[in-house]
């Protein structure tokens, strides 16, 4: 029965995120906000809602190992699988704005997260004596960075606001948009609760750690909205939305989700999670170099990303 609840939770998360994205995107279109801003903010926030629901619920229940591994696993999945599959479908041309600002910022905040968790005591990481944590002050610092990012995006949206309508989003009535947002949020919250409870019970049954469950099953499940959104956007040629969704979601996951989780309840972070953060920085750097070198993420590079994820999955399974 626990597996039924897990699947039901994922269905509620994905459909809830779908409704939330549709309603939010329609509202953004009514406000004449351009595609890249929608991808980096509205859609990124909507597709990050499953991660937010799972991680915050885990924090409230004191299961913080799941909160951290879910965010790190989702970010790695977004970077390698979502971008990988999207670029295999159609090479992704990167927006100059994303390459100059948001992509480097996503790498920077991952480094900041590692520094906050370790307190610069990386020596303890290698000899196994280190004690790593993300306390409430660290969580508030991440939330402040999130507000800075959000204000920057809103200012950019207002500056780029235009009467031109070149986006493919369906425009619904204001009432229908609001209703979809509310129904979507309800599905996301209930689904997140079911996923956390079911995943933790499965982990106990098989003697698996919360960290492994969070990095694999939960991370993949909560990242399905990003995968579907970016692949559909890639098929439609909406490169700004596909890439902006992934970069924006990764920024939201670290700053908003871990920020909220740590502010609710201080998080103890194990050494394996610190290694995952360092791996995420390296992987993000490789993705940035690939994308910036030609301004396009090619199909060949997409296959490289998929191979990198396969190697990473084997690594976390064996460790």
What does this structure look like?
Keywords: Membrane, Transmembrane, Transmembrane helix. The chain crosses the membrane at residues 66-85, 105-127, 139-158, 178-196, 241-261, 273-290, 302-318. InterPro entries: K/Na/Ca-exchanger, NaCa_Exmemb, NCX_ion-bd_dom_sf. Residues 3-153, 177-317 form the Sodium/calcium exchanger membrane region domain. It is found in: Membrane. With 319 residues, the chain is mostly helical. The chain has a single domain (2-318), classed as NCX, central ion-binding region (A middle domain of Talin 1). Helices cover 82% and strands 3% of the residues. The protein has 12 helices and 4 strands. A two-stranded antiparallel sheet has the order 1-4. The protein has a two-stranded antiparallel sheet with strand order 2-3. Helix 4 (96-118) runs parallel beside helix 10 (239-264) and helix 7 runs antiparallel to helix 8 (210-222). The radius of gyration is 19 Å and the shape is globular. The two termini are 29 Å apart. The model is unreliable at 163-167 (pLDDT under 50).
């Amino acid at each position: 029965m626990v597996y039924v609840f897990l699947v039901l939770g994922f269905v509620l998360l994905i459909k809830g995120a779908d409704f939330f994205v549709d309603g939010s995107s329609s509202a953004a279109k009514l406000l004449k906000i351009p595609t890249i801003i929608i991808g980096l903010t509205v859609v990124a926030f909507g597709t990050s809602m499953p991660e937010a629901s799972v991680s915050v619920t885990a924090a409230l229940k004191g299961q913080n190992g799941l909160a951290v591994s879910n965010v790190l696993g989702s970010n790695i999945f977004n970077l390698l699988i979502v971008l990988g599959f999207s670029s295999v479908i159609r090479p992704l041309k990167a927006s100059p704005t994303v390459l100059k600002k948001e992509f480097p910022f996503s790498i920077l905040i991952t480094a900041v997260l590692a520094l906050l968790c370790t307190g610069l005591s990386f020596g303890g990481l290698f000899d196994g004596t280190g004690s790593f944590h993300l306390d409430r002050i660290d969580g508030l610092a991440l939330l402040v960075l999130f507000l800075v990012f959000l204000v920057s995006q809103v200012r950019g949206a207002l500056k780029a606001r235009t009467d031109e309508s070149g986006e493919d989003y369906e425009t619904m009535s204001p009432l229908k948009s609001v209703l979809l947002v509310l129904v979507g949020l309800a599905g996301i919250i209930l689904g997140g609760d079911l996923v956390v409870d079911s995943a933790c019970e499965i982990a106990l049954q098989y003697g698996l750690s919360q960290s492994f469950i969070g990095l694999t099953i939960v991370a993949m499940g909560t990242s399905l909205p990003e995968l579907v959104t970016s692949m559909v956007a890639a098929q439609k040629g909406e490169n700004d939305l596909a890439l902006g969704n992934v970069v924006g979601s990764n920024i939201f996951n670290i700053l908003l989700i871990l920020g909220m989780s740590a502010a609710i309840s201080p998080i103890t972070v194990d050494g394996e999670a610190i290694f995952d953060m360092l791996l995420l920085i390296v992987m993000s750097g490789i993705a940035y170099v690939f994308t910036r070198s030609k301004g396009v993420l090619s199909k060949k590079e997409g296959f490289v990303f998929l191979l990198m994820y396969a190697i990473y999955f084997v690594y976390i399974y064996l460790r």
